[in-house]
Structures are given as structure tokens and as C-alpha cells.
User: Fold these one by one.
Assistant:
Number 1:
Amino acid sequence: MADVRTLEEHASFGGVQGFHEHGSREVGLPMRFGVYLPPQAKQGPCPLLYCLAGLTCNEQTFAIKAGAQQHASRHGLVLVTPDTSPRETGIPEADAAGWDFGTAAGFYLDATREPYARHWRMESWLMKELPDVLASRFPVQADRVGILGHSMGGHGALTLALRYPGRFRSVSAFAPICAPREVPWGEKAFRGYLGDDVSAWKDHDAVALIERGGRLPKLLVDQGGADQFLASQLRPERLEQACRSSGQPLELRRHESYDHGYFFIASFIGDHLDHHAAQLRAG
Ligand SMILES: N[C@@H](CCC(=O)N[C@@H](CS)C(=O)NCC(=O)O)C(=O)O
């Protein structure tokens, strides 16, 4: 049984929203995550949906602001909201680097560059450690797992699903960073975590991975037309081009007037949970 400490629990839509902490082997520090258990989980294991948040967020942000629990309750889905980086690492650079790098900006990869390589192991935490922690403590169906994310978390959902074919039965994103190699947020993160060899950056860039032949289950992406980061950081047209030329099924919906924030996510989260439930419950 994994060492998991429950920090908070709140009744929600017939189920329970909890926040937990465990001592992470991969990160070498305590890591926090939220788990929403729908009412169906009292009867037996349910499919699991990872929800990855963006820059400046923590394990509570998506759980508090997206309004996903009512839909997870309707569909019988467990929601997991991991924190977005290691915390209290004692590395001054990580806190001094601005809100788009370091703390709360893990980019869902394993850093190879010092001083980040020791603790910034978000990919290994999510892919090699957290699944076993969840399976040992919560009623989840380990073979029915989906992933969604917002912004940096959208980048995480796309790249993790591309890097681990077959691990996720359903994938979607809100306003993802589609081509991080080509935009300031991604360039700063990749240079800081991976170093100056830009060929290594391609392994963590959704557009590059799709162009290289990577495939996802049918992908749903929502993008606000009034998103303040649309042209400078997100570039959904690059994803559209890559999917079209590679034959990757993509439903990209553009919503005029919606900005980058959680009012946008909450407006369309029901459609995303419908999308995931249909694929997670099929077969
Ligand atoms: N702090 C940044 C904005 C950061 C931001 O928009 N973060 C997004 C993810 S990329 C978010 O979800 N923030 C949390 C929130 O809106 O509650 C700024 O000053 O422009």
C-alpha cells in the first residue's frame, strides 16, 4: 500500500473530492494530487481521467475551477489532478525564473539539465509512479485511462499520449501549447530543462511527434478566439496542419469571444467528459 496522506476531503455531486500527498520516489519530494471519486466508485472500480493544469496552477486549480465533478459524477469517471511541478525544492533559480518556468511550470517532462534534473521528473512521476499509487489506494480501472489538459497541461496531455502509445484510450485539450519548440514559453522551458540541443526538444513537442508518425486516439481540442496567448504561445494551426498531413483525426473547435481562463474551460468541460466517457467505456 502506497504511503498517501489525505489532506482534505469534500462531498461533491454524490462523490468525494479529495486532495492527497505522497512521498515521491521519482521527484524525491512530497507531491500532491487531487482525486475526485464519483458515486459509482462506491460500487466498484471506475475509469480514470488525468486532468493536467497550466502554468501557475497547482493540484487544486482544475478541481476548484473547471466544474468537472458534475460530469464525472454523471459518467462515473475518477478525475486525477496532479500538481504542476515539484515544490519547496530549495533551488533558488526555480523560484526566481518567473511564473512560466520552474515552480508551477514543470512542463510534464523529465529535466536533464542541472539544477533541475534531480527533482523536475514530472513525466516519470506521472507515467511510472502515480499510476501504481492510485491503483493501490483508489478504485480505478487501470486499463481504462484518459488524459486531458489545459495550456501547458494541454501540451502535457498531447505529448505524454504521443510518447506512450496505447496508455491512454482518450485524449483532449483546452488551448494547448501545440508547438512548444517554436514559442517563447516552450523555448524557455526546453532550454532550461533540456539544454541547448534543439533536437532533444522534438521529443516533447506535439507537432513534431505527430509529424514523426506519432498517433493519438481521436483528438478533441477546444480553443478560445479571444485567448490572449493564441498567436504568441499556442498556435493551434500548427497542430491542425500536422494532423491533416499525417492523417491524425482531430476535432478542433474554435470559440469566438472565449479567453484563456477557466470560464472558457468550464463552458466546454461537459463536452470533454462526454468525449472521454464514450471512449473509456467502449468495448
Ligand atoms: N500569470 C500569468 C497568467 C498565467 C495563466 O494564465 N495561467 C493559466 C494557465 S497557462 C491558468 O490556468 N491560470 C490559473 C487560473 O486562471 O486560475 C499572467 O500574468 O499573464
Number 2:
Amino acid sequence: MIASSPDAPLMGASSEVGRLCTVLLHRPGPELRRLTPRNNDQLLFDGVPWVDRAQEEHDAFAQALADRGVEVLHLDRLLAEVLSFPSARAELIAAAVDDPRLGATLQRSTTTHLSGMDPEQLAGTLIAGLAHDELRGGRGLAYEVMERGDFVVPPLPNLLFTRDSSVWVGDQVAVTSLAMPARHRESTITAAVYAHHPRFAGVNQLYGAHLEHLEGGDVLLLAEGVVAVGVGERTTPGGAERLARRLFARRLAHTVLVVPIAQQRATMHLDTIATMVDVDAMVMYPAVADSLVAWTVTAPDGSPDLPADDADVTELAVAGPQPFLTAAASAMGIDRLRVIDTGLDPVTAEREQWDDGNNTLALAPRLAVAYERNTVTNAALEAAGIEVVRIAGSELGSGRGGPRCMSCPVARDPL
Ligand SMILES: NC(=O)NCCC[C@H](N)C(=O)O
């Protein structure tokens, strides 16, 4: 039986750079072995990774965090633990078969199959998926018509990128609403873990998987009370607006900067082009540094008591657009937000942006984890006084995500 620890540290985060205390990771497993040249595009990978090496790289990432005093939580273990609770099992099995491809008969036989599993097996199957030929006792028209290699329950190879399916703001957690069909089910897992695991007992959920699309990679906590939200391929303006209302209603932020980003794979999230490495510094793709703009959203004047989360009648105050760097510095109350460039020349910058050179994970002010391959960006970071913890990512990077994407901070010290 699992129990919450009375010694568990306080949870929550109010910045990108406060000392990282606890982080949620997911070690890639059998779900990555499902990737083939036929399905990798649909499953949002740019290739077919060498899984053993990806696991070694991830283990080294987790170790680098642990070596610096960070408590590492593993999503698959938390999931297996909550699957000992009947309500969590029922929720997650229902989510796994909630797929219009299946039809009622196959949904029933899949539910029966999954219900017979112990928590460990069920956690493994919810993540790695269930192929047609692994389903004993499958029935129904859809089952007959499917090919042997088809998935009754598709795998979740992008669970590796724990950043996107939940994000903490203050002491609350936003379970997000992922835009791409290949990732929808991920947030049913994070929602169940936060709702049922004793470790998170009493934590308020700030957002939900059924709401407008919002992904954690688009949410940057620039400073206490100041949240930047990228809108583009993944997060919609509607998602940014809903999050802003909720942050204001719960007094978790006073300003939300809404930042349009190009709707393309290379810039799928705001954290693919910029991340914080110090209280007043970001590493940023230089090609966007001058053109990036922000709309500044604040709670309406004279509303000290915003009534409830979704008081949709409340008009938010919206100003802009302004250059992002100007709007951010002003909201953060600093003279200037310093920018460290990814790359040196435009071609190197483009290559290192693609390889997640901007996607750093700060462990504390001026201490960040980065992929070793981005040598020019890392040298620029060091020249600017940032200590860089280098990790290998040749295989992990084939999913197009770096150290920030692969981590969800659960607790950071306040600055
Ligand atoms: N925050 C991030 O940029 N996460 C990386 C997500 C990569 C994943 N293959 C995706 O396309 O969603």
C-alpha cells in the first residue's frame, strides 16, 4: 500500500529557475519499440530510435539530476501505484478504450482483457499500448478487420516528454489538453496520478484534458506572477485565455503574456525557441528574438474578488502586441531581459534550435541541463556565466524534445 510521506517536500513552482527540488520524468520503455517507419510520423517521432541507447541516455539524465540533489519521480511507477485503486483503474481503462475506431464489441473485450491485469502489467500496457495480436479473446467487426500489427490501444511514446501533459503554477497543477491525437491519452494518465496518488493528496487541479488545447511546453513561468504562454501548433488562443482566467481567479498570476509562435514542427512549443537560464536571462533562437511579440493580459481593473474559474463574462484586459522582450521585462519588473543566442551564424542557429539547443532545464539560477550536441549554444551559455550540465541526446532527440521537454518540475524553491 502506498502512503503519502509526511516528510514530502512542499510542491509547486513559481519560476523557471528556482532551485529544482522534485521533478517528474518518464524513462522511455517498450512504447518506443512500437515505432516503425510506417508509424513514426503519426506518433510524432522524426525517426526510429535505438531504444537501449535512449534508455541509457535517459538514465544519465536522471542521474545528473539526482547528483545535484533533485528528487526524481517516475511517471510509470506513480501510475502503477495508483492502478491499485479501483476508481483509477476504471478511469484509465475507460480512457484507453474510448476510441471510435473500436466499436462497442471490441471495446468490451478490450476492457475485459485490461481488467484482468495486475497494476504493473496494466501500467505497462497503458503506456506501451496493445497490439491486435496481443489481445487474446478479441471480438467484434473492428477486431476482425484490423491487421495483426494494428493497435487496439495505441502506444504513448511521447510520454517521455512529461513537460507537456502537466504543468505546475504556484501550488496547483494544470493537467493539460494535448492537441495531437497521438498524445491525447497522456493527460488521462497525469490526471489520474494527480487525482489519486497520495503524494498529491489535496493538490488542486487548475486545468483539464477536456478544455481548449494547452500544452506545458508552451507555458513559461518568467517570474513570480508572470506567465508566458506560446500559441501556435499546439496551444490555442482559447487555451491561453482559459488558463489566464483561472490563474487570475486563483491569484496565481497577475500577468499572462500570450506569445504567437510559427505553426510548424520546428517551433511546436514556446520552449523550443526560448527557455530561462537565470532570473533575467533566456537562451533564445536569434531568428525570432527581434520578431517575437506578446499580448499582455491582465486581470480587469477593480476586480479584487474575481468570482470563479470560468467567470467567462469577466473581460480580461488585453494590451499589445509589443516586442516580447519589452513586454516580458516590463511584466517582470526588470530593466532588460538578457538574451543568449542559440548558435553563432544563422545556419548553426537553425541546426541547434532544431536539436533543442534552446530547450534547457534550469536546476537553479545560472545552472542548466542541455544537450551536449549543441556545442556552439553551450559555449555561448558558458560565456554568459551559465554552468551547463551536458547530457547525451542522440536517441532521445529523435522525438524532438530536450531536457526541458523531458521534465515536469513538481517543486522548485521560491526565488
Ligand atoms: N515541450 C516540447 O517541446 N516537447 C517536445 C514534444 C515532442 C513530441 N514528439 C511532440 O511532437 O509532441
